[in-house]
Input
Amino acid sequence: MADQFQTAAPLNLNVNATPQVAVEPAGFWRRFLASFIDNIIVAVIQLPLKIPLAIVQTASMTTESGGGMVAYLASMFASTVVYFVVLFFYFGWFYVNKGATPGKMVLDLRVLREDTGTHLSYWRTFGREFVGKVVLGMATLGVGYLLAAFREDKKALHDLAFGSRVVRIRK
Amino acid sequence: MGAQDMQNQDNGEITGLHRSQEVVEGIRIRLEPAPILKRTIAAAIDMGILGAASYGALIPLIFLGGMSAALDFGMGGKGIATIIVIGLYVIALMVAFHYYYIYFEYNKGATPGKKLMGLKVISVDGKRLTKGQAIYREIVRWYLDAIFLIPAAISIMVTQRRQRVGDVLAGTMVVYSKSREESQQFIYVKQEDYRAILAHLQMPTIPGDVRRSYLIAANRAFLMNEQMQLQSELSQWSAYFRGLLTGQAERLELNDTTVLRFMAEHCFQLDRKETEQKGWRNG
Output
């Protein structure tokens, strides 16, 4: 056992033997840009699911019978459901497994739990993205998002409400 | 070179795979052709970035377009200014898109989307891309592979190195490495530092509840930069881990911060892998 250690190459750490990764709260514009990229990716993912629904909608609008109205409302409803399902699994899967969505990863951002510093769970993601962003963010007319720009710890309302934190990693 | 590779493929040999190697710290690693799903996700991410950039570029376009439309239709022009502005926008986008792929694949070996998925573009002989190869596969990407998707799909399924038409023509391939994909998941120490230390240690098992309570302390100390307030707690933790490692930390001359950061990363990685296996996370 001891021999195995002696034959191993000497430990050669990069920076004065103290490895470092600098972590700081992520700024507003960086996060804005990240969510911009994410929204476009989500839109692209939805396309194959949305195109048939859009065809149904267009067809139903040209029908004058009562069935046309039902088909129209049903396809509108289905399209909303598709949007939320895609959103739930997109954010959920990436936050749980990678700690960030692709847009955030490109910009070196991570969404971590406030208390443990580990990745979010699906339900916390659901709370943050739907209750926190959609309900709270809209109810406060966007001031919930803007908090990130003015608070020192860069937390938006959806971070405060669901115990999450967005950090930028500098390696 | 290209012709001979093609011949090898025709013979049904997988010599190309064996020659596609990468030398990391003196160890030869055989490279795995990139899984199609990973390449697709990488492409979607790149399109997201480029799409966001095109949207951003719409702001000057609307401004300039408005001015040129006013010039054309309000002041008796013939629509030429508007056509020029829109033409310039399209040309600017094309240049930007080509530049994005050529710059990242030639200089960094991977576009941001590919990097996130742990992919890298290499020459089939295992070397990095030449500028010519990067340009060649980029031109074929847009004017053949992306427009006529079917030849690209067939080519990826048929070739042993999972090459699209542009890859075959330019003599390149896309390879995947799990460790490259995971390297972005390290937040307390860099992956290479973590591995260097880990290779020199006989790691003890750390009980789950200890792991969780240490992650809370490490989160405050290193992710929220509160080392100063936590000094006494951290020195207790470092004494605890030095005890667990039974003298190995002293033999490697690791200082307290290194021990604490390394153990934090270790706990974080264990936690992450546990979630990966369960596919679910509590809390």
Observations:
- The interface with chain B takes residues 1, 5, 8, 11-14, 17-21, 23-24, 33, 36-38, 40-41, 44-45, 96-99, 102-103, 105-106, 110, 112-113, 115-122, 124, 167, 169, 171 of chain A (CB under 8 Å).
- The first strand of chain A starts at residue 22 and ends at 25.
- Residues 41 and 118 of chain A are 25 Å apart (CA to CA).
